[in-house]
Design brief:
Elements (H helix, E strand, L loop, with lengths): L1 E6 L13 E2 L6 E16 L3 E3 L4 E11 L1 E3 L3 E12 L1 H10 L4 E4 L6 E7 L3 E8 L2 E5 L6 E12 L4 E17 L7 E11 L5 E8 L69 H28 L1
Parallel strand pairs: 1-10, 6-15
Antiparallel strand pairs: 2-7, 3-4, 3-5, 3-14, 5-7, 7-12, 8-11, 8-13, 9-10, 9-13, 13-14, 13-15
Keywords: Signal
Protein name: DUF6801 domain-containing protein
Organism: Janibacter melonis
């Protein structure tokens, strides 16, 4: 059987705190009062164990829930009324000269609780404290302790809540105001009750919550805000596809050949023959061609 063990802090304590209630105000709960019987040994400071095992009776008042969800904390406030038999009260009063007792925050002030379905189980140790209490000159010694307990709810199922063993560390004072510490007594008690059951708790499966789809902001990766790193294609010139210098924009592609004008000799006044005019035209054409070639070479060098 799988068992888990939980111990609460000493500050949130109850004597045997066996009552358990679910966390949350909405959890239905009911007050339960039960009485458990314990068989105890007594160890007295500087005297050792006292003979005899008189019973100690403990009455618990707890808030026991009807159901909790698995995984939740199970908690309860507890009031425990401890009745110590007259024989032990007389030993404190007459033999040890004790007039008041208390139960401080101490690891020995602890009681057990078990939540089990026979297969899965959660065990808890609950620390407890008790205020200063007068020791009467006769009769039983009654001490009231208060506190709380908290254990995690097991997996879904029906569970029995049971009281287990307890220990107690009691300090004794020679005066009623608790100023003269004189001794201490350690009790180690076994639960001998016919029934150790406090009640039952139904542990239900936890409700699954749907995954939010529209309330939360999306986290899509940006597509247009970040700069791209594509390789340039048309802006950087490719040496293998550079333009032919002969096709450079802005350079003349043809030479205008001046027309030959035939001038009649009779139309004098100019003093120039047709041969001279033809020679001058050819020189002008060659000069224009040379200028064009010079511009094209200069463009190719750029």
């Amino acid at each position: 059987m799988a068992r888990r063990h939980v111990r609460t802090s000493a500050g949130a304590a109850a004597l045997a705190g066996i009552g358990i209630a679910a966390v949350g105000l909405a959890a239905p709960a009911q007050a339960v009062t039960i009485t458990q019987d314990y068989e105890c040994t007594y160890e007295v400071l500087n005297l050792g164990q006292i003979a005899g095992d008189p019973d100690v009776s403990v009455s618990y008042t707890v808030d026991l829930p009807t159901s909790v969800e698995e995984g939740e904390q199970i908690t309860s406030d507890v009031t425990a009324v401890v009745t110590i038999p007259e024989s032990r009260r007389d030993s404190l009063y007459s033999l040890l000269n004790v007039r008041a007792v208390d139960a401080p925050s101490d690891p020995l002030n602890a009681a057990g609780v078990s939540v089990s379905d026979g297969t899965d189980s959660v065990d808890g140790d609950i620390a407890f404290t008790s205020p200063l209490t007068d020791v009467p000159a006769s009769g039983e010694l009654v001490v009231t302790a208060t506190g709380s307990v908290s254990v995690p709810a097991p997996s879904a199922g029906t569970y029995d809540v049971e009281a287990t063993d307890l220990t107690a560390f009691i300090r004794g004072y020679a005066d009623a105001d608790g100023q003269s510490y004189t001794t201490n007594v350690t009790l180690r008690c076994t639960n001998v009750s016919e029934s150790t059951s406090v009640g039952t708790i139904e542990v239900t499966e936890a409700d699954s919550e749907p995954t939010p789809t529209t309330d939360e902001p999306t986290t899509d990766e940006p597509t247009t805000d970040e700069p791209t790193t594509d390789e340039p294609t048309s802006e950087d010139p490719d040496p293998t596809t550079s333009s032919d210098p002969t096709a450079t924009s802005g350079s003349p592609t043809s030479v205008q050949t001046p027309a030959l004008v035939q001038t009649d000799a009779s139309q004098g006044g100019s003093g120039q023959s047709p041969a001279l005019l033809l020679g001058g035209g050819l020189l002008a054409a060659v000069g224009g061609l040379g200028l064009t070639l010079t511009r094209r070479r200069a463009s190719a060098r750029h």
